[in-house]
Amino acid sequence: MNISIITVGKLKEKYLKMGIDEYLKRLSAYAKVDVIEVPDEKAPEQLSDSEMEQVKNKEGERILAKVGVDTYVVALAIEGKQKSSEELADSLDKLATYGKSKIAFIIGGSLGLSDEVLKRADEKLSFSKMTFPHQLMKLVLLEQVYRAFRINRGEPYHK
Known about the structure:
Layout: E1 2-8, H1 14-27, E2 32-38, H2 49-64, E3 72-82, H3 85-97, E4 102-107, H4 115-120, E5 123-126, H5 134-152
Parallel strand pairs: 1-2, 1-4, 3-4, 3-5
Helix pairs in contact: 1-5, 3-5
């Protein structure tokens, strides 16, 4: 299975990088995982609604440029479906079973994802109704993907 984590913005925090590197190392036993960072759009703190849409659209174009036509896309979105770790594991297992070997998880920038990215998504996944920093979500997502592989292999970890 080939998994891409496509995110907006460069990760700067050392403690998050260390955690992400650890999970990427652990995941290498189960799948090929790439983290793709697209540049965030520079914008002032105060934006009008139309300016926010413009920023999301520019970031969305950069994201979609990294997504292959045969890729199953999971957009992380607050309005998405919430799943347990076991349900996520089952979803990944079913995707593999039905020949969906290329999966992209997409994490938007601080303003969220453009409508075009959400339309391209095959599935919308929510980790919570709470808002999290998008850089932290990269680590949380990698941990959950790792947990899913462990669950699917019957290996101890998920208790």
